[in-house]
Amino acid sequence: MAERSDAARNRAMIVDAARELVAESGELKLSLVARRAGVGQGTLYRHFATRDELIRALYDQEVDDLVALAHSLLGECGPDVALERWFAQLAAYARVKLGVIAAVEASVWQDISAQTPGKLAEALTALLDAGREQGVLRGDVDARDVILLSWFLAHVERDEWDERTPRLLSVLLDGLRVR
Q1: What is the CA radius of gyration of the chain?
Q2: Burial per residue of 112-149, b for 16 or more beta-carbon CB atoms within 10 angstroms, e otherwise
């Protein structure tokens, strides 16, 4: 049965509020999420019985958005520009991911993150393949290489994020481009 439009809207507002709070402070208190989303506690708990369920939904949405963005960008611009814009969104996702990691116990995190490499690899493969076909991206780099290289995002401190992340992404992109 399809979710009612008001229920779907409430769910989306709850996930968006959780994304904002995690990115701001890394802390995820359900009472704050409900307040930020403009819904009551009961509405929040109807959608997400536990904090871990909300975190899983947030994380899944971020990954799904990244995958969809890769394909969308390939329809809008050249593959090297698409990859650059995709990396910018990956960095925003990594900022949320840091908050998610801080909010979740290690055992729950392993379960939540197990699906990520496959989904991101599919998106990256599409971007890299398009770039190789047009001769603008290296042919000797695969999605796993890029995923491993992008893990630096998990180690950039909040106070240096705005300065350091764009520079590091630029170095990564320069290394992927054909010379």
Answers
A1: 18
A2: beeebeeebbebbebbbbbbbeeebbeeebebeebeee
CA 104 – CA 73 distance, rounded (Å): 31
Query: Please, what is the angle between helix 116-133 and helix 79-103, to 10°?
Result: 170
Q: By the 8 A CB rule, do 54 and 18 touch? A: yes
Q: Does domain 1-49 have CATH number 3.40.50.300?
A: no
Q: Which CATH class is domain 59-176?
A: mainly alpha
DSSP 29: -
Contact 44, 28 (CB under 8 A): no
Please check whether residue 127 is in contact with residue 82, taking contact to mean a CB–CB distance below 8 angstroms. Answer: yes
As a whole number of angstroms, the distance between CA 65 and CA 110 comes to 20
The residues spanned by each domain of the chain are 1-49, 59-176
Q: Cβ neighbours of residue 158 under 8 Å, at least 6 residues apart?
A: 98
Please, what are the averages of pLDDT over each run of 10 residues along the chain (179 residues)?
78 92 76 94 93 85 90 95 93 71 53 68 94 96 90 84 93 94
